[in-house]
Amino acid sequence: VNRKSNFELLRILCILGILGMHIYGYIYNSSAGINRALGIIINSICNANVSIFFLISGYFGIKSSGKKLILMEATILFYSLLDLLCIYVENGTVSLYTCIKAVFPILNEKYWFMTCYIIIFCFSKYIDDILNNITKKSLRNIIFISVLFFSFAPTIFLNDNNSGKGILNMGLMY
To answer: 1 Cβ partners below 8 Å, 6+ apart?
Structure first.
């Protein structure tokens, strides 16, 4: 599928919304009154951005390659180690557990979004092959059952299930 500027703009807006939600998250914890209400509005509007981002990725498909995977891993590792350095500068010490998380950020879900993206990136070719060779009825049934178990049931029964932000949910979005 060829890239389309309207989807690219939506993807950029999603990224900005996610950044805004995270930036305001620091302020939200110490806010009250109108600022707290603003935080709830921002979170409510921007919370769907991650899912929308994965929907767009699924629509266009992920072109996986070893070079892209290595570049993503290196970028994630760089920011993880930079975060470790900041923690050390701020506290004067870091725990062994924090060091392990910093060195293996994808394996221990330090950044849950990137862990989900890397997993889907690695499986995208196979997911695409399955989707291209499955009947529409079977695909519809898989989507229905997945939404039932991974979205509807956790909402009704207040089962966290990663609050709609785990690998199962992101795989469903893809």
So the answer is: 59, 60, 61
- Write down the mean pLDDT value for the chain: 83
Tell whether the torsion through CA atoms of 116, 118, 122 and 125 is positive or negative.
positive
Please state, in angstroms and rounded to a whole number, the distance separating the CA atoms of residues 32 and 36: 5
Q: Is the dihedral of CA 75, 79, 84, 86 positive or negative?
A: positive
Report the chain's C-alpha Rg in angstroms: 19
CA atoms of 58 and 56, how far apart (whole Å): 5
Q: Which residues contact 153 (CB under 8 A, 6 or more apart)?
A: 159
Q: What is the pLDDT of residues 57-89, one digit of tens each?
A: 777 777 778 898 999 999 999 999 999 999 999
Q: Distance (Å, rounded) from C-alpha 106 to C-alpha 173? A: 20
Using an 8 Å Cβ cutoff, are 57 and 174 in contact?
yes
Cβ-contact 167, 123 below 8 angstroms: no
pLDDT of residue 1 exceeding 80, the answer is no
pTM score of the predicted model: 0.71
